[in-house]
């Protein structure tokens, strides 16, 4: 009887989309209710370890490179001279590792509200945490919304919001007030990057985010799309917003000559990620 779920199948139901995603598990490795959220890590048969927060998929060993590379390298090669970066959320540390692959980066401050996520990432996703002790990295465990209000104006080149979905502690990371704090924290020409959910299932949310970024004063927006099998619909996006009137031309030559190996990112996949289907362009044109 192939195809029928068994007790070893872990299923995330996407109620609003009438769909679900399942992975075959071997066992539950750890489960901790932190003051903020329920964090679980499972061993799976084919996807390595798998982290879930409050029932929502976060990271798998097998496919996280897609998300982490595309949350970082297009923005870093899209900025003329990025040196100072903040990551809001990102507690699994995969985004931090990718940012630190860029030798010209001078500082990265990561602010995740929940230290428990990083404690469990260190144990079950050690490869994602291999740059945590880089002298350029500072890991803080605090509310990213408040941190962004307090940080020195015009002190950052890139802000990457690698957050949970807009529910629970992540909710306030998706609104105009937060984006205004980000705008104030960025230097001229600085870029905000935020994971912006599924370009198939969450078009309304994507449009609301883009509208809130524009309302906050960002001058131009660019949504990029890429595959991410473990997230709802298997297709994901991030949105870039620039402090200025237009984006700089990406440093394509530097992207081509990047001094590190990447599994998904290349100048070609970067260009491909910027190509959006007509229905999305139409939705964004109506903003
Ligand atoms: N890649 C994932 C995704 O798209 O679903 C996100 C991964 S990362 C583990 C998300 C992190 O955001 C979590 O560790 C959570 O603690 C953090 N987070 C949620 N709300 C936050 C807030 N207000 N300030 C800082 N971090 C926050």
UniProtKB/TrEMBL annotation:
Listed pathway(s): Amine and polyamine biosynthesis; spermidine biosynthesis; spermidine from putrescine: step 1/1
Enzyme Commission number, as recorded: 2.5.1.16
CDD domains in UniProt: AdoMet_MTases
Domain PABS: 7-243
An example Gene Ontology CC term for this record: cytosol
Gene Ontology biological-process annotations: spermidine biosynthetic process
Source superkingdom: Bacteria
Keywords: Polyamine biosynthesis, Spermidine biosynthesis, Transferase
Catalyzed reactions per annotation: S-adenosyl 3-(methylsulfanyl)propylamine + putrescine = S-methyl-5'-thioadenosine + spermidine + H(+)
Active site: 162 (proton acceptor)
InterPro entries reported in the protein's UniProt record: PABS, PABS_CS, SAM-dependent_MTases_sf, Spermi_synthase, Spermidine_synt_N, Spermidine_synt_N_sf
Similarity field: Belongs to the spermidine/spermine synthase family.
Subunit structure: Homodimer or homotetramer.
UniProt-recorded name of the protein: Polyamine aminopropyltransferase
Species the sequence originates in: Echinimonas agarilytica
Lineage start: Bacteria, Pseudomonadati, Pseudomonadota, Gammaproteobacteria, Alteromonadales
Gene of this entry: speE
